[in-house]
Amino acid sequence: MMSLTHWLPTMLQIIASLAAVGVALAALRGLASALRARRLAPGKASELVAALPARQTVLVTGATGFIGRRLVEALASAGHRAIVLTRDPRTAAQLPPPFWLVTQLDHIPGDTPIDAVVNLAGEPIDRGPWTAARRRRILTSRLRMTRDVVRLIARLERKPAVLVSASAIGWYGLWQDELLTEFDGGKSCFIHRNCAAWVRAARMAERQGVRTVRLRIGPVLGTDGGLLARRLTPFELGLGGRIGSGRQWMSWIERDDLVRLIAHVIATPSLTGPVNATAPVPIDNRTFTRELAHALRRPAWLPIPALLLRALARDRADELLIGGQRVLPDKAALSGFKFRHPTLHHALSALLGTRTGRLHPRREPNGRHFAGRSPARRLSLRSDLAVLAARHRLSDERLLR
């Protein structure tokens, strides 16, 4: 007892010192974030939907999420009419007006003219362990909302021209170095099965004569949400590092580019079926780690072991962190879409306000840029099919069946 009494003050001093260090590091991070924010000059939100015709009415589900917030801001600032669906009206307070708020799709009269529907709603897949109950919530939240959207379309007197329904590049399953386009199949895993069920629900809108596009979205980069926001704190504190071996591919997209792509899809009648929403230069995790550390002028010396991640998260770690997909946005590119941030360097410079030297990706033998470790096979047959589809304005299903 005396020994414990003797050491107790010392232990309290150590704890207090560690707490003080934590507070100081948090203050430094806040200062760095504030200085970075002062350097940023974000573009006008209205420019992100410049591809749309004038005065469109767009229904957005999942409007208070990371992607939906920016989309609604862009629509409202450009003079379009945004119909915002949210279960909790309090969460819509963060959205810039004007918009029409509904808490249920049944509240929308059948004679409402809606030009496009963008379905982004769904339980976040990257928060919390994948228990059986959570897996059910992830799937049912997407199916329920998508079926509600299809029912709304069925009772509208004038059908919308297009349904843009979110999916994910996890549809492809787990791959190694294989280059993947919209013409490739998927491998079975939880995210693939979830996306496949989601796609089947969305395709029911096609029976109503509505063009349906399924956006296979990669990790979305932004400073107020998504992958980058989660990684900033450890990297700014100098505690960043690769995940596992760092060889897994990351097919990312910057958020404003994603909003621009959504507008492009709405305005391009020839686009139908799956469309990959990823930047044209995928990277591996080692390159992402190196680029982010370089942009923040911080070391990246603390890797996260794959064994630890698997022990903590099991298949969630394999599908979201350790595995990956090397995805190319062929259909977007063939339809004329131009990315403002085609490389991670461009995206980080815009998002973090940095002006650092570029870490140049290598160039593949066929001329494609990439950031990684090994050359890829050529895609001559697949590219020919994609060009043929674009030329004749065919969907992928009509071309390949």
Structure description:
- 43% of the residues lie in helices and 13% in strands.
- The chain has a single domain (45-394), classed as NAD(P)-binding Rossmann-like Domain (Rossmann fold, 3-Layer(aba) Sandwich), CATH 3.40.50.720.
- Strands 3-2-1-4-5-7-11 form a 7-stranded parallel β-sheet, sandwiched between helices. It has a two-stranded parallel ribbon with strand order 6-13.
- The chain is globular and about 70 Å long.
- Helix 2 (66-77) links the parallel strand 1 and strand 2 (81-85).
- The protein has 13 helices and 15 strands.
- The longest helix has 38 residues, at 2-39.
- The N and C termini lie far apart (79 Å).
- With 401 residues, it is of the alpha/beta class.
- Mean pLDDT is 83; it is low at 360-370 and 372-401.
Topology overview:
Elements: H1 2-39, E1 57-61, H2 66-77, E2 81-85, E3 100-102, E4 116-119, H3 132-155, E5 162-168, E6 179-180, H4 190-202, E7 211-217, E8 220-222, H5 226-236, E9 249-250, E10 253-254, H6 255-267, E11 273-277, E12 283-284, H7 285-296, H8 306-313, H9 315-322, E13 326-327, H10 330-334, H11 344-352, E14 362-363, E15 369-370, H12 380-392, H13 396-400
Parallel strand pairs: 1-2, 1-4, 2-3, 4-5, 5-7, 6-13, 7-11, 8-10
Antiparallel strand pairs: 9-12, 14-15
Helix pairs in contact: 2-6, 3-4, 7-11, 8-9
If classified by CATH, what would the architecture be? 3-Layer(aba) Sandwich
Number of helices: 13
CATH level-4 homologous superfamily: NAD(P)-binding Rossmann-like Domain
Q: What class would the helix/strand composition place it in? A: alpha/beta
Name the CATH class: Alpha Beta
Average pLDDT level: 83
Domain count: the total is 1
Estimated radius of gyration: 23 Å
**Helical residues, percent:** 40-55%
Which percent band covers the strand fraction? 5-15%
- At the third CATH level, what is the topology name? Rossmann fold
**Largest beta sheet, briefly?**
7 strands, parallel
Number of distinct beta strands: 15
Shape: globular
How far from one another are the termini? 79 Å
Poorly predicted runs: 360-370, 372-401
Strand order of the largest sheet: 3-2-1-4-5-7-11
Q: What is the chain-wise order of helices and strands?
A: HEHEEEHEEHEEHEEHEEHHHEHHEEHH
